[in-house]
Every structure is written in structure tokens, then in C-alpha cells.
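ugh ok so i messed up the first submission bc i forgot one of the chains. this is the corrected input, ALL of the components this time, i swear. 1013 residues overall. if the numbers dont match what u have on ur side tell me asap before i send this to the collaborators (the ones from the other lab, u know who)
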Amino acid sequence: MIITNSLMYNSYKNIEFPPLEDFAPEQPVVKTLQNGLRVYFLEDNELPLVRVRASIRAGAAYEPAEKIGLASICAQVMRMGGTLKNPGDALDDELGLLGATLDISMGGVSAGASASCLAEKLLRVLDLFNDILRYPSFPQEKIDLAKSAMRTAISRRNDQIGTMAQRAHQIAMYGRASVFAREPQYATIDSITRDDLLQYHRQYFNASRAMIGFVGDFKTSDIWPTVENYFGNWEVSRAPLAAIDTNPLPVHGRSVYFSEKSDVNQTNLYISGVGTRRDDPDWPALRVASFVLGSGGFSSRLLRKVRTELGLAYSVGGGFGAEYDRVGLFRTACQTKTQSTAQAIEAMLGEIEGLIRNPPDRDEIASAQDQILNAEVFEYDTKPEVLARRMTLDYYNYPPAFLQDVNRRVRTITPESVAAAIRRKLNPENLKIVAVGNRDGFDKPLANFGPVTEIDLSILDK
Amino acid sequence: MLFSAWMVGEYNNSKCKKNAERVGHSFEYDNRVRRFGSVVAYVHRRIRANFERTQRTPLSKPVTEKTSSVDDFPELSSRVRTRTLQNGLRVIVVSRGQAPVVSFHTYVDVGSVDERPGLTGIAHMFEHMAFKGSSRVGTSDWIAERAALAAEEQTFLAWRDAVRRESPDAETRRAEFDGAHAHALEFVASEEYSTAIERAGGVGLNATTGTDATQYFYSLPANKIELWAWLESERFADPVLREFYKERDVVQEERRSRTDSNPLGKLIEEALIAAFDDHPYGRPVIGFQRDLEHFSRTEAEEFYKTTYGPEKMVLSIVGRVDPEQTFQIVERYFSRIEKNRPNPAPPEPVARITGEKRLEVALPAQPIYVAIYRRPNGRHDDDTVYHAIADLLGGGEYSRLQKSVVKTGIAVACQAGSQFPGSKYSTGFFIFAIPVQGRGVRDVEIAVEEEMQHLIREGPREQELAGVRERAKNEFLYEIESNAGLARLLAHNEAIGGGWRETFQFISKVNGVTASRVREVATALFQKENRTVVTLKPTNDANAAAPEANS
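and heres the new structure output, hopefully the right one now
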């Protein structure tokens, strides 16, 4: 870097920056085992650490409706219960002694396993990782513990307004029966048996549904034989994943969804509609539009209006959501004091409508483009990040250069193209307002904003 | 880190996380809140035990000789360059990495402990104001704005005074303030300061205020160091606290989110008030509501002038940089920050045993158990012994409390932490537990106490200490893995931890912890007289806080 100026610039706007050094991040090496399992390796020798992660096509969406909670309990007991060779309690002790971590996670439409350790412990941790992933023993004692923890979680469901609002929002947008809105009840937990767990594990944790990645301080050629040895004989499965309905409910007109929490002095608000997919041609323009509306930090319209100008919220923001394999949600949110609930809704609606009435102008678009493109280097500045992005893209069958491609298209966005994309994807008349709070103190009745549907979040007795 | 930072009472100025956008979510609340919410709501998820990761404060002098095979990462520490400017400001630069990025961390040795009673929350309030600009940034017409700000302040003080005197003029004074306030806002170039950073590609733009310190940080592409130097020096050389009374409303919303509408937030606030009734650690960092409604811009400016100053600041810069050129830029911009004559720091509280304190907080939520045991500050020779006790007792799945309280079905989570809420002064060792449905806080307490007595009777096994050592090394490496993490740790140690070199001595100090010392320290620590126990008592039973049917 060359510094020629020895004085302070009078304005930060006049600072001349040297060009940013070219940087092409190293890409992972991808190998495929004979059973079809893809394995990614990315060497990073700065510190003596290694991370391992597996992505698995599973998730709570695939559990039967009468056994909600099954997938989550499966993941927990895989780790808590361990295997016959490495029982859970011994595993806890050994990992503690190694200073290593090993976790199984379960999401809605994906599952994962991850481990981290010092490079010198990698072989042992890999042995444990393989064992836990493939041969969990599901001891009854740990199943009971996990079920009791799940019952406890249910009993605490309504303690925090934030989680209540998230649940109400999912119910409003997807419907109670949706895989994204349904939730465990005492009865569904009680019905889960050890056989259910064994079956769920057998069905989803196999080589055909998984990919594994390594990043850190190792030599690929050194660990490849071990990896081949462990995972090369992992079973395959030809059974296709069950089809699940992942679409949000259609939104017609303005409507309000409300759930009461009387012991708080703040309302949690969402105003949401239907979003888009990442592979939609409008996505680059909608990404820019989201920056302008509410995902672009301090300079976005929602922030400046609701927080800075009106002082109505600490947290406020939102924009067009996009998923890789399904339609996401257009979602905005804020938390405001009970007495300014309607005022905050009006301010948020005003900004959402403003996207159509007063679409992003040249300056706003330039600002969003600057933010996105100048920060592009942070999308691949660390190797764990490079690996994670690549695995995610492969998982959803997106081209490896997808992100660069989106950024290239962000560069070409104009006021006309962003306005057209917004008009195609957002109708401000079709929005759902979701509120959780203490209605006695609201500044105006919610019915002013549309027909009100009560969302019952009470905990079902059992 | 998220969980622990929340627990120790740090409050930050985040709104939308750039990181969240980068990984594809269109928007995300403050991560800390979400993470914590998920702990309570989804306790079945196993909580990563990471209380200690951000809060350890290595000692100023070694406890024992280094033991064998200790790796203090001499290669990395040899790349740390430091400089002190004439005004006393300290600068740390580490050249590192391949990607052309750089992380900046400004660590200010000023926190809520430096506040006066009646002005709680003002350190955090100043942190928010440090994003509002200067006489050159954030204004459309500084001359006019300056006059408008003076009028706004004058009318605010007159209104406040009228309210205090219960004067019949209060409403008139309020109307005058409203007018002057609206006028002052006309000159604001909204969010210019933050926007300048974001447009340049800044990520992770944020700040936090804790009991001990205030921290400002973000990262930029490596060719934009001078932009950071310009803006960062500007906000401390010439802060203009514009939009103060709007931002005060925002901070009150922050308080509602974190404390008033959050059972655990309320519990923690009460626990600290009870445990530290003799020290500013007992006052909430976010501030009491009555103070947030009361304090003025004049008082915030006064707070800044009497606490901040270059000798209280450490700048840490880590990434693909040339140290010599970086020092030159820093010197050019930061030398203009004038020395203040800060107020003396509050005195160390006198260690005193006041007997056990117990408090039940009645809330419409399920039971929670919090115990705080008083302990010495983070520079004490035994600091790593407390760290070891917290780790082996309640640090993770391997820990004793996990075995005796969680795996036995008494609690779904039970954790320990060694520095709460701070480390600069005599502080607290805490235990936090969430009982299983149908079990009470008393069951938790009996099981936790039994484990403490066990540790006092027999001390730790050698194998447990070996685990503590391995985990310390791992956690340290993960913390310094990112430029931002290394920058933060170096700045923290330089500012309040006894010098940046302590960063590279933490592992060897943990390695020096002996079983006999753990037993001695645990014996003194886990006395009933030394603790405050605060529990959440549900105001209704099974279905707490359920929506009222058709109300």
C-alpha cells in the first residue's frame, strides 16, 4: 500500500484509496468416494486447528405429524447417547479431555454434524465423528432425558415474547399444519419411541444424503486414506426424500394476527408477505431493494425512519427473503413500546408502500451497490467461510460462481430495473401484520389495519 | 461469546447485522438477544459452554513457572507491534493473513462503573452518540445546527427543572422543548457517519458498553485504513451529540427488550443489585428507566469530558497491513485528540462478608436459579484458578454440574462462569440453572451445593485439570483465529488486563493451576455467607403467560 499524503484530509470524502490488492481465495479440493459421498478439503495452516462439518438432507420437516420433535430428539440422543463403542458419558469426558467439540444439529429442512479440534487430535476426533454419525445406540436412559428436556422447553415456550412472536409469525405465514409452523406438544413427545429414532436415523443419515468438509491444518494427501477408510463404506439409500409443502400461504389483502402477552411493556411486530427464490432473475435487484428498505444497516429507510427519526425501536429492519430451494418470505420486524404499537405499524407500512410509490433512486442504489460490492471481499476472507459457501451451493445444486454472478448483476442494477422487480414481487396491499404484546395499552386497535385473527399460543395440556 | 457477553451485561448498538445479510438472511435482530431467547425457549438444544471465552483476564504477573510443552505462539506474538502517541494513546498493529481485509478495535477503559448514581446508562448512551458524527460529519449546516442544539438543550433543562419543581409551567416548557428539538433535527444529515463506513464495505460495525469498558469495532477492505483513521479519530476529537433525545428513546426501547420484557433480564438486574449493593457493579449498564428519562445532553458531554481521553484508549489493528505505514496514519489523525483530566476511577470495594442474601423475583415465567459468589478482580493471582473452577464445574458436557445436575434430570442447563459482571474490580463467580419441568430451584441448589462440597473435600482429579488445559488452548486459538477476535483480545489486555503480552500468557497460566490451589480457592469461594441467590418464582403454574382466551 502506498501512502503519498502526509496530511489529514479535510473531509473523509476526499480520501484517495490505493487499489485493493487482487485476491483469489484458494478453493477446496473435492473428492468423491465410491459410494458417491462428496468430501471437501481446504488446507489452512495458520493455526493448528481443524474443523469438520457434514451436511445431511434430513430435518424436522420429514418427521410424522404425530411425532413432532422426533428429528430434534434423534440429533440430541445421537450425541448424548453415543455408541456402543463410545457411550455418551464417556464421549463427553473424552471430548472434554481432548478440548474438542462434536455436535449434531437438526434444522427444519437440513441436518448437520460438526467437530473442531487441535490438528494433532484430528485422527481420534474423526474416529468419533464417524462412529457417532453412523452407529448411534440410542440408549433409553438418554432418550428419556432428551424427552424430559423437550417437555421442559414446551413448558417455557411462553416465557419470552421474542420466541412467542417468532412462532406466531410462522403460524400466520405458513399455517399451523406447515412443517415450518408446527411444533412439538407434550403428546407428540410422549409418543416417540426408541424404534422411531432408529428408523429416522437409518432413513436419513446415509452417504446418499450427506456431504463432508474439512478445513484447517492438515495435508489432504495425509488424511484422504483415513477418510476413505471411514466413510467409503457408508451405506447408500436410493429412497427419495418425501415431498413436503414448503410454500408460504398466499396473502390476499391486509390482515392482522395477534397473540396476547400481558406482562410486557413492548410489542413484537412483523409485517410480512411472500418473498422469492435465490435463483429468481429478480433476486439481485431485490437484494439491492432490501438494502434500501431495511437490511442495509444504518442507512436503510426503515432504520432511519423508525429508529433514528421516530425513536420508536431499537431493533428494526427487513427485506425480501430468498431461499435456495423454495420461496422465502418478505419480512420486516421491529419491537416498540406498547403505547406506540400502531404508530410503528403505520411507519413500517409507510416505508413498505414507499418502495412502490417512491422506488430506490440513483443515490440509494449506488449506496447499496457500494455496500454490497465493497464488502464482497468479506464473503471469502477466511477459509472456513470459503468452504461453507461452496458446500452450501453444492448442496442446493447451484453453480460454484453463483455469488460472484449475483454480485456482477448487482453492479448493473438501475432505478428502472429495481422498480420493476419490486413491482413484480411486492404488493403492499397483500401483507400480514403479526403482533404479540399487551393489547390494553395499544395506541389504536389493531382492527384499524385489517381483520384480526387471534393466534392461540397456549400450551396444550397433557 | 454471544451468550456470555449478554450475561455480563454488555449492551451494544447493533441494528442490522451485515454478517446476517452476507450469509443470506435478509435481516436479523441483535444476535445476542436471539441466541439467548433460544436458550430459554429451546433448552433441549445443548448449550455450548462458552461463558469464559471472552471474559477471561489474564494476570499481570505469572502465578507459577511455565510447565512443559506450553505453546504461547511466539511466532504470532513476535508480529505484534506497538506505539504510544504523545497524547498517551496506545496503538497495536498485527500484520496477518492473505485476504486484503483489516479489523479495527477501539477499546476505551470507561464503562458503567464510571457513572455517578442518578446517571446510570450514560456510558452506554455516549456509545450510541458516538455514531452521530461531528461538526463536519452528520450536519447540513453546522453553524445553524450549533445554535439550534444550544436552544434545544436550554429548553430541555428548563422543562426538566419545571417538572422537578412541579411548576404549572411544565407543559409550556415542554412545548418549547418540542419546538427547539424539531428545529435542531432539521440540520441533521441522517446516519452520515455509519453510512460512510457501510458504503466503503465496512462489516461488523458495532459497539458495546459493559461495566468496565466501551468498545467500538468494525472491519474494512485493507485499502481503506485511512478512512477508518479519519472517522474514528473524528468521533473522539470532536463528538457532536446530535439527536440525543431521539436516541434516548431508542435506548429505552433497548431496555424494554432486554430487561423489562424479558424475565431473565429482570432476574439478572435484581441479582446484581443485591450482590453488589456496595459497588457500581450493582447498577445496570443499560441504566434505570428513571435515569434514562431524566439525563441531559449536557450530562452526557460532561461524562465524556471527565472520563474519556487518549490515555484511556487502545487502538488495535489486525489484518493485511504494513505496520509502519499504519502507525504513520494513526499518528497523523489521532494526535489531535486532546488529553482530558479524567475523574478518578471508583475505588475497589472493600472485601466484606455480609452474610448470605436471598431474593425471590415473582414473574409469570418458569423457574430460574442464579447464584453469585463474590471473588477478587481479574488481575488477582488466582484468576486462572477461578477460570479452572468454572470450567470443570460448569463449562460444558464434560463438567461436574452436567453430570450431577443435568444428566440426573434435575436441570436442563447448569453452567458456571468466573467473571460476572466485570473483571476490573472485585467481581462475581456465577452459577446459572434452568430446572427441569416439575423440579424446583431448591432441587438445583441442593445438587449444586453437593458438587461444590465434593470439590472442596477432594479437589479436582488430575485428569480434569488436563481437560481444563486443553480446552483453554482450543478456546484461545478459536478466539484469535479471526482478525477481529485477535484485535479485541489484544486491546482488552492492553487496556485493562495488564498489557497485551498477557494475551500470549493465558495458556501457560492455566497450565500452572494446581489441584491443591483449586481446592483452597473453592473452599474460600463457596461459602454461604459469600453468596447472593436470586430465583425466579412463577406467579402462576403450569401455563405461565399463556394468552388469555379471547380477551
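quick check: The radius of gyration of chain B is 24 Å. that seems consistent at least. DSSP finds 21 helices and twelve strands in chain B.
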